[in-house]
Automatic annotation (TrEMBL):
It comes from Novosphingobium decolorationis. InterPro entries: Malate_synth_C_sf, Malate_synth_sf, Malate_synthase_TIM, Malate_synthG, MS_C, MS_N, MS_N_TIM-barrel_dom, MSG_insertion. Glyoxylate binds at residues 319, 411, 436-439. It catalyses: glyoxylate + acetyl-CoA + H2O = (S)-malate + CoA + H(+). NCBIfam families: malate_syn_G, PRK02999.1. This is Malate synthase G. Residues 570-652 form the Malate synthase C-terminal domain. Gene3D superfamilies: Malate synthase, domain 3, Malate synthase, domain III. HAMAP family: Malate_synth_G. Pathway: Carbohydrate metabolism; glyoxylate cycle; (S)-malate from isocitrate: step 2/2. The keyword Transport does not apply. PANTHER family: MALATE SYNTHASE G (PTHR42739:SF1). Its EC number is 2.3.3.9.
Amino acid sequence: MTKRIERCGLRVDAALAQFIENEVLPPIGQDADAFWSGFAALVGEYAPRNRALLQTREDLQARIDAWHGERAGQPLDAQAYEAFLREIGYLVPEPGDFTIATKNVDPEIATMAGPQLVVPVLNARFLLNAANARRGSLYDAFYGTDALDAPPAQGPGYDPQRGSAVIAAGRDFLDRAIPLAHGSWADLSDVAERELADETQYLGETEKGLVFTNNGLTIELVFDPQSPVGQGDRMGLSDIVLEAALTTIVDLEDSVAAVDAEDKIAAYANWLGVIRGDLSDTFEKGGKTQTRTLAPDTQMVTREGERTALPGRSLLFVRNVGHLMTNPAVLLPDGGEIPEGILDAVVTSAISTQDVKGLTRYGNSRQGSIYIVKPKMHGPEECAFTDDLFNAVEDLLGLDRHTIKVGVMDEERRTSANLAACIAAVKERVVFINTGFLDRTGDEIHTSMRAGPMIRKADIKGSTWIAAYETRNVAIGLKHGLSGIAQIGKGMWAAPDRMHDMLAQKIGHPRTGANTAWVPSPTAATLHAMHYHQVDVFGLREEIAQEAIPGLDQLLQIPLANGANWSPEEIREELDNNAQGLLGYVVRWIDQGVGCSKVPDINDVGLMEDRATLRISSQHMANWLLHGVCTREQVLDSLQRMAAKVDAQNAGDPLYEPMDGNWERSLAFQAACDLVFKGVEQPSGYTEPLLHAWRLKKKSLVLAA
């Protein structure tokens, strides 16, 4: 039974109250009584507004469902459809000319271009790895992945043949990023003999080597002739260290399974630790005990003889929960659960206030800002609500107006279609917009659920709407002044073991004018950083800004499978693909509380999965079931056969609980079935309500045992 204490009419989990009162408030000089009084007043004002916004979502969806239902079997009339969306307020008028006015933004966001990591806050080791991914070894990234067209390393120790291939690839990179006036880096035997084509690229010296810059990113050449690598190098060069993950999103949302106060305290404690600078994690690796902490800055003497430092850590955002979910960590006076996004806004900002006040070991924002990414907002009204909420949080914590910055994730259809108005609603605090295939596709399917059956999932990536979505996001961002002030981002590379393919394909992201894109690991961040040395993002933007913004007619094209006549084999293949990915993710979420992990797909390729991928799979199967493309029996057959495959893929996990044959006992399997068979009725097609309910049931059973 959860122990609760009353705080100004709120019934707060006792451990959460203790955490806030003992760890969060004292360093920032907040009186506990004043805090709870202000917090209760804030919740009293904003919880009803939050509920009203969710009701608006439901009302709009009901009207869209009815409109499609009345026209079942008819071709979609695009003009009539757009007029209808305007009539019901789903589409709002364009806001006219405006430019964002965000102040005090760190250069990693405003004026630099480079990779971005997203990391689950509940995993301290991963969180530290991500925070420390600001600087990464290019040699390690080449040596330990498939990035190179060369045989993999042989044996447990250093493989000189593989090392030679890495050294050659490193020299090739240097020739492109820091070209010499004459010849190649491969011809140099003494770095002192170098003559750069542009001598301004040389910045200075560190204890270990020399630092250069290209496209705003640093490159450190590390020299150690006694090392295994340096011994085989003409210059004694032992590593090339790239500035990599400029920013990291510390995630409390899609990549975590946080369903109660216990989970939220663990999440907030890790955020506090990484902000305060004292987070550490001890673990076993290779038979040895290791302890990981935050990396310090790297000291440098500039070519002018001045002492400075290269940042050792990624600049951190924190991704709060969206507007939909509530959490039992705090109960309202009427007995209802607190909207989780409101709880996150207050607690994560209170923690970050230690950084604003300069009370942390390393510091995060040098501009005194707090960076919050806000996901799953539906349209400008919800963005305006977030702006008001952040105003109230600033007042509660005694922060200057617009200290809290916001990242607007363009991942819901109503936001995509009204993006300019969404940006206008937060124009004095916006620092980030992005695109992402996953949640955006889930919402595309759910919004148009009753319009007809959708094309196959893989084909959606090539559909008209998503091309318009990707292009519009950048173009609208540039039109309204984000360049030089805010990030324009792109989505995730989901296959962490396929770095060769990533190097070949992900250069497309900076070529769109986006100054950041998501990668699945620190190693991937180091490799993706090479793309920002190849592409001068800010130099491209003037040209890109001259291009026409795709119209709404393209964005609103629904990916319907008009006239498709799939064979039974094709239907089974699609169902199996969806079912396997769905089960592989859900079984870890429900049984082990793992919100993001590398999950083998149906072809045993490891892909990073989170709730966004689950939303697509469950909604796609629900859509086909609704329109008779498949039957309930076919879906259940796929789920049961794929459960056996997922069991086999997890056979080496001692904590894994098999699903095959345990249909009534496996809560994970039952949750997976609910996600499909109840998918049509889920709010916005989100998976969280069902996942949370089944996870809470699982936790209660474990506790009872």
